[in-house]
Design brief:
Elements lengths: L16 E3 L2 E5 L2 H12 L4 H15 L9 E8 L2 E7 L9 H6 L18 H12 L4 H14 L1 E2 L2 H17 L6 H7 L11 E2 L2 H13 L2 H5 L1 H12 L6 H6 L3 E3 L2 E5 L2 E5 L6 H12 L9 H21 L10 H4 L2 H8 L19 E8 L4 E7 L9 E2 L4 E2 L30 E5 L2 E9 L4 H13 L5 H6 L3 E5 L2 E5 L4 H9 L3 E5 L7 E7 L5 E5 L6 E4 L1
Helix pairs in contact: 1-2, 1-5, 2-4, 2-5, 5-8, 12-13, 12-15, 12-16, 13-18
């Protein structure tokens, strides 16, 4: 990529990291180092990604867990592969069933929003298809951290404390007691530097490793999840777990100014980022971060997101194809709606034709973009007794409108917020990237890409730069550090902008790129305990 290693238009505490034999970029130091250790043992980028992802369930449980979902884009043997390991809604759960119970909105916590966890199936499937080492070997570092403990890192401790404060209010029912036993063993959240461990978590990881995750979906773990859901009057059953299957997908792409940007197809919303790029291609975007360029980018993002919320769902239930949403004709139609002032976006009608992110690369040219999440910090808040498994609440993203493609349905995948990204050029890999953080993710992808491709920032500078986030209508939040002059000019265009001091809602990103000589260049997130482990 054409960027200046020394171009830092914003203050930075980090510099670019270079290597050539291997690299792991993620939000937690121990997890990154575990992935690098696997590379040094002879593992490839996929083995490193699995090791890192499993470690993150232990070292950053505030954002992901064994009971969450995962997605990946893998560059292996000169080809690109997509993995969707998101789980479905229980087959006994329906809109009518919730209405029967007097529930008119899917809650964020408790047993109702729980969907089938997909993360263990992602690890096992990636290992079986592309791994060089056994799953038992790649999960060993996570098992050791869970059993022996590790010192909690600063940002994780901060997020844990925030989640604990919410839990004291939200987790009043006895069904949440296991959460407090496991994640607040001293009656509080662990502090930075304090050792936390979970023997239950270690034993579960051992079983997953030994059975290649089969026990999780068909054996003793599945039975324990089933029994707990019965006790909680929940819906997830051992039959739902047994029916779970990962999906190997061909990633979708948009060509943007010499680069091909890749995202996974629905049910994830990486399509939103690609739609925004397609709209932006139609506009006179410049190479500076000024109010005019930001205005056009924000408007393109609003249009793409509005379409995404209207049309993206489980692909078997979508009435509009991704190809239609990504067509050049439709992008031109949408771009013509962008004027000099802010608009209230409305979905178009195309013609049919709490998260962790990590990136890995090895010395052989293989690269992985991997993302994993429980959603909303600790997910549902329900921990299966004796297992350490904190179950996700991804079903909260369903709606109960029978006319909407994302309406709750038995055995259906919900609209999903976690999205890995990947860049290629002329058929060769440039590298994996991602910006975690719920509905911020496509917006983070766009901001990272435009700052690198349009403005020539290096990856670390692009991650350091202040971010913005569309909230709805004409409303945006921006980070402290965003130019007051630019913000004022945007306000004059009709954008309703407020500064947000809490950086937690603006996403956390990582990136690895490979140059033509094979040198790896890594950048990590200043908003978390980000680390580049390099060889």
């Amino acid at each position: 990529m054409n960027f200046s290693p020394h171009k830092y238009p914003y203050p930075s505490k980090r510099t670019l990291v270079y290597g050539n034999k291997g690299m792991v970029a993620t939000s937690q130091p121990q997890a990154a180092q575990a992935g690098l250790d696997i590379l040094k043992m002879g593992g490839n980028a996929v083995d490193a990604a699995i090791a890192t992802a499993a470690c993150l369930t232990v070292t950053e449980p505030t954002s992901n867990g064994i009971g969450g979902d995962a997605f990946a884009i893998v560059w292996m043997n000169h080809g690109l592969y997509g993995l969707n390991a998101s789980g479905t809604a229980p087959r006994s759960l329906s809109v009518d069933e919730l209405h029967r119970r007097g529930i008119n909105e899917i809650p964020a916590r408790g047993p109702v929003p729980i969907t089938v966890p997909g993360a263990p199936s992602a690890w096992a499937s990636l290992s079986e298809r592309f791994g060089r080492l056994s799953l038992s070997r790649t999960l060993q570092p996570a098992i050791e951290y869970a059993r022996n403990g590790y010192p909690v890192s600063p940002v994780t401790a901060k997020n844990w404390q925030r989640a604990f404060e919410k839990a004291k209010t939200d987790f009043g029912d006895p069904i949440f007691n296991e959460w407090f036993r496991v994640f607040a063993p001293k009656g509080r959240a662990p502090k930075a530097g304090e050792i936390w461990s979970s023997e239950d978590h270690a034993k579960t990881l051992e079983i997953i490793a030994e059975t290649k995750a089969k026990d999780f979906y068909e054996g003793s773990i599945a039975q324990r999840i089933h029994d707990f859901m019965v006790d909680c009057e929940g819906y997830l059953s051992k039959e739902d777990l047994k029916a779970h299957q990962v999906v190997w997908d061909q990633p979708l792409t948009a060509h943007y100014r010499g680069y091909d940007i890749w995202e996974l197809p629905p049910n994830g919303h990486g399509l939103v980022a690609l739609m925004a790029l397609n709209i932006m291609k139609q506009l006179p975007m410049g190479d500076k971060e000024n109010s005019q360029n930001l205005h056009m980018t924000m408007e393109a993002m609003k249009l793409a997101y509005t379409d995404g919320k209207a049309w993206i769902a489980d692909p078997h239930h979508m009435s509009v194809t991704p190809e239609a949403l990504l067509s050049e004709i439709y992008a031109r139609q949408r771009s013509r709606l962008i004027g000099e002032t802010a608009m209230e976006p409305v979905a178009g009608k195309p013609v049919s034709s709490g998260t962790v992110y990590l990136a890995t690369a090895d010395g052989e040219g293989n690269m992985v973009s991997f993302i994993q999440s429980n959603y909303m910090d600790f997910g549902s808040g329900l921990v299966v007794p004796g297992t350490g498994i904190n179950l996700q609440n991804r079903g909260h993203n369903f709606c109960l409108d029978n006319t909407h493609p994302n309406c709750l349905g038995p055995g259906k995948r919900s609209y999903h917020t976690i999205i890995p990204g990947f860049i290629t050029r002329n058929g060769a890999p440039v590298g994996p990237f991602g910006v975690m953080g719920g509905f911020m993710q496509p917006q983070g992808h766009i901001q990272l890409l435009t700052r690198i491709i349009d403005q020539g920032m290096n990856p670390q500078a692009a991650l350091d730069a202040p971010r913005w986030q569309w909230i709805g209508g004409k409303r945006f939040e921006v980070e402290m550090g965003m130019s007051e002059l630019i913000v004022e000019e945007l306000r004059k265009r009709g954008h309703e902008i407020t500064y947000q001091q809490d950086q937690g809602s603006f996403g956390r990103g990582q990136m690895i790129i490979r140059d033509e000589s094979g040198t790896l260049c890594g950048a990590t997130e200043p908003r978390t305990d980000g680390t580049i482990a390099v060889w």
